[in-house]
Amino acid sequence: MKEDLFWIQSTPSLMNIPEPFCSGVDLLRYLNDHTTDHEDLPTSQHKLGLYYEDCVNHLINKSTKVIDLKRNIVVTKNKKTLGEFDFIGRTSEKDFHLECAIKFYLRVGSGEQLSDFIGPGKRDRLDIKWQRMLEHQLPLSETNDGLRTCHQHEISPSARALLIQGYLFHPLDEPAQQLHPTINKHHLKGWWIYAKNLQKIQGDFQYQILRKPYWLRFSETGLMNFDALTEQMISLKQPCLIRRLDSSAREIDRGFVLNNDW
User: Fold this and answer.
1) What per-residue confidence (pLDDT) applies to 42?
2) Tens digit of pLDDT for each residue in 109-159?
3) Hey, which residues does 107 pair with through a beta bridge?
4) Among residues 12, 13, 39, 209, which is most buried (max CB within 10 A)?
5) Quick one: which of 11, 12, 8, 16 has its CA closest to 179?
6) What pLDDT score does 19 carry?
7) Does residue 224 lie within any of the structural domains?
8) Which structural domain, as residue segments, surrounds residue 61?
């Protein structure tokens, strides 16, 4: 959906990108020059990460600066897979290697450690993902085997960019005092609560449940009042992402409602 493309173009990085790497947000802005005339993006993806990658692919391919773009290029050595490039591309000014990720993490500690942030499915942790992106995924195009693979596609990356966007969700009644310095202070924020405490988000709002892979979307369909939301949460088994909106259907905030034994 075009709203999700706009979201990617305008959303700050979740993390501060360290040198020698560059910001994927800046790379997209360079490639697109704030292009906003996007058509809807058809997709059959059901996984958020793959849907996000489709959106990024669409944005890059819309750029008049891109001469060639390769996606999901596998790097091998002696028939053994060493890794995979999300994107490698060529422009008239520079070639690039881009790794991207969309992440939604819940803070379960103070937030001073990256390990305090875990995915709603408990299968992902920010410190592990961050380390892998910095120490394996991005440096892959600097290795002999990675460079050989790039050159096979006539691409020689001089810019290695990291695009990591998403939300960090903080306990509703426990605002973070001091977060790990690698986290971008301008990151998008949300809240989380247990289903047994649902009344804490009651108010003069409309509510909307967001389903994967459309966790970015700003749709105005499927709105409900608090009683209807409560009915939906009675048999909650998986973390559920919801939006709170005002009477004009403008988003106030968003957060996860978790099953009580999460």
Assistant:
1) 59
2) 999 999 999 999 999 999 999 999 999 999 999 999 999 999 999 999 999
3) 117
4) 13
5) 16
6) 93
7) yes
8) 2-171
C-alpha 205/C-alpha 143 separation (Å) is: 53
Longest dimension (CA), the chain: 62
Burial of 168 from C-beta contacts in 10 A (0-12 / 13-18 / 19+): buried
pLDDT of residue 68: 96
| Residues in the chain, overall count | 262
| pLDDT at residue 204, as a whole number | 94
Q: What is the pTM of this model?
A: 0.92
φ, ψ of residue 200 to 5 degrees: the values are -65, -20
Do 91 and 204 have their domain in common? no
Q: In the prediction, which pLDDT does 176 show?
A: 85
Distance CA 211, CA 190 (A): 16
Q: Where are the alpha helices (DSSP H) in 102-203?
A: 126-132, 144-152
> Measuring CA to CA, how many Å separate 215 from each of 1, 44, 50, 172, 198?
12, 15, 13, 19, 20
Residue given tokens 């990356």 in the structure block: 157
Q: Which residues of the chain have pLDDT under 50?
A: none
pLDDT for res 41: 63
What span, in angstroms and rounded, lies between the C-alpha atoms of 139 and 65?
Answer: 24
Is the Cβ–Cβ distance between 223 and 207 less than 8 Å?
A: yes
pLDDT recorded at residue 80? 94
Q: CA 156, CA 140: separation in Å to the nearest integer?
A: 13
Backbone angles phi, psi at 246, to 5 degrees: -85, -175
2 closest CA partner among 217, 166, 215, 213:
217
User: Can you read off the two tokens belonging to residue 128?
Assistant: 């592990």
Residue 89, CA distances (Å) to 29, 95, 160, 194 in order: 15, 6, 11, 44
Same domain? For 88 and 148 the reply is yes
H or E segment and range at residue 169: strand 159-171
In total, how many domains does the chain have? 2
